[in-house]
UniProtKB/TrEMBL annotation:
Source taxonomy: Bacteria, Bacillati, Actinomycetota, Rubrobacteria, Rubrobacterales
Span of domain UspA: 7-146, 156-296
Cross-referenced CDD domains: USP-like
Protein name: Universal stress protein family
Stated family: Belongs to the universal stress protein A family.
């Protein structure tokens, strides 16, 4: 089982409005856990010149790096004014998701925090969003912070639990974050009954379905008890007959969705498998209006 205590947090920032909320979340967790806070900004890779001898790309790269360092300097100054200590400021050049993931592994960060802008479905289909690339490419837990000012800190944490090792890791980290802010924690497990046969269920069929449902409920309650003992935090449970992602949204509730942190484990599927199966973490990330925590499996974390 995962020990969720964090010693290093990496905040990825682009200096835009969404980054302010992400900074607040990262700073809050860092201060309450006593973890080092590192900040990174990634600027786009400069293409090589189209003809030999040109220095345009070198000049642009140097200018972009200077702007990146100035952005970090300003954000670092604002953070320190608010009493937040920055352990390290990092500048990288290249694809944001790839560079952030690499730095997180290099630092051995226990959590990556990033803001998220609204991206239209057409653009996401063609290029993908940075947040999705980060979630699926990182070997570290990733907290994507979105929503208005009221979205952080969360008042409620809803965790999708399917009994897998990745879900257990998400349970622990989500409950520990919830305990920092006194937030309510609910473990959600979704299930689907087989299609009803022609002529309806027999008495024996209904008895077997009831027994299976009872076992599911007992398993979920047992998991909640284990998690409560580990985190010293009260854990609620909800069992819903529907798919996992809709179940989490139902429990979050429309009015409270922005103030609810949704947490899921990720099996580390490849791009093709995600496209074919539409992973739960992808569905949650695309549909949530508030913050989302995605925790990779132990196998993915060991990459």
């Amino acid at each position: 089982m995962m020990n969720a205590s964090l010693t290093k947090i990496l905040l990825a920032t682009d200096g835009l409005r969404e980054a302010t909320l992400a900074m607040r979340a990262a700073a809050d967790i860092s201060c309450k856990m006593g973890a080092e806070l590192h900040v990174v900004h990634v600027f786009p890779e400069v293409l090589p010149p189209s003809h030999p001898g040109s220095t345009i790309s070198d000049d642009y790269s140097r200018l972009a790096e200077e702007e990146a360092r100035e952005l970090l300097r300003k954000q670092g100054w604002k953070a320190r004014v608010d009493g937040v200590e920055i352990a390290g400021e990092h500048v990288r050049e290249g694809k944001p998701a790839k560079e952030i993931s690499a730095l997180a592994q290099e630092l051995d960060a226990g959590l990556v925090v990033a803001g998220s802008r609204a991206v239209g479905w057409a653009k996401r289909l063609i290029t993908g969003s940075v947040s999705e690339g980060l979630v699926h490419g990182s070997s570290r837990p990733v907290l994507i912070v979105r929503g208005g000012k009221a979205a952080w800190p969360p008042a409620r944490v809803v965790v999708g639990d399917d009994g897998t090792e990745a879900a257990e890791r998400a349970d622990v980290l989500a409950a520990e974050i919830a305990s920092l802010f006194g937030a309510e924690v609910v473990l959600v497990r979704a299930y689907e009954n087989p299609p009803e046969p022609v002529g309806g269920w027999s008495a024996q069929d209904r008895c077997e379905l009831d027994e299976a449902l009872s076992r599911r409920r007992e398993d979920l309650d047992e998991r909640a008890e284990q998690l409560a003992a580990l985190t010293h935090h009260r854990i609620g449970t909800t069992l819903i007959e529907t798919k996992a992602a809709p179940a989490m949204s139902l429990v979050a509730g429309k009015r409270e969705e922005e103030r609810t942190l949704l947490a899921v484990g990720s099996r580390g599927l490849g791009a093709l498998d995600r496209a074919l199966s539409r992973s739960v973490s992808t569905k949650v990330l695309r549909s949530a209006h508030g913050p989302v925590l995605v925790v990779p499996s132990e196998k993915a974390s060991a990459r």
